[in-house]
Automatic annotation (TrEMBL):
It comes from the Bacteria. The keyword Heme applies. The keyword Cell membrane does not apply. Keywords: Heme, Iron, Metal-binding. InterPro entries: Haem_Oase (IPR002051), Haem_Oase-like (IPR016053), Haem_Oase-like_multi-hlx (IPR016084). SUPFAM superfamilies: Heme oxygenase-like. PANTHER family: HEME OXYGENASE (PTHR10720). This is Heme oxygenase.
Amino acid sequence: MSPLTELLRQATAHELRAVASTAFAQRLARGEVDRTRYVRLLANLQALYAELEWALMWNRQNPAVAPLCLPELWRNELLQDDLRTLLGPGWYASAPRQDGVAHVERLGLLCDEAPGLLAAHAWVLYATDLPGAGQSGAGIARALGLRGKEGTVFLRHATHLDGAAYRAHLLDTLDQLRLDEASREALAEEARLAVRGVHALFEALGRNLPMAREQRERVRSGGWWPRPLALARGMS
């Protein structure tokens, strides 16, 4: 029997590639995201991580959940710091988090009815390479006129602790869970749902994106569409 984390990796490979292929994820990687969409991303992720971390703590007496309560990996406070920088002290009231409502509601349901499945969401949100997370944040900082690390703490995964070591510990913890085949498959399906939730968020953020910089340059240079005169000659 393969380790649980390998099962989860294989089960979500297609969905994770789909997230990375979204227009918004590609713009984020290049640091070409406007302030409004960047704030929407952080606000929806903050709601998501806050709900997951609350659910894990609420169920910390559950033997299937207790080993997953690793505050060293948690992201809610990092995202709050970024949103406070971008929106000011009243950030919570003005943070646009409607794009992730269904995903947050799913976590609330699991918290009450199936806490064991929270492990799948912990794996997705802390142990996979989601777009944007882990980058230097320099491109976003330049694009938005931010100073130093302010506003990009989440992207940089800034922490005084060894995040890589705790991530490895989480993976090892998941692999040590004693689960029957049905429980393993249920976690795999839940992990797919979790990644699809992230994909839905990135798709929403990518709607009506303005033309990318390289596309604008192609249009200006005449390399994007065939020139009308050339078309007319080809038809004559």
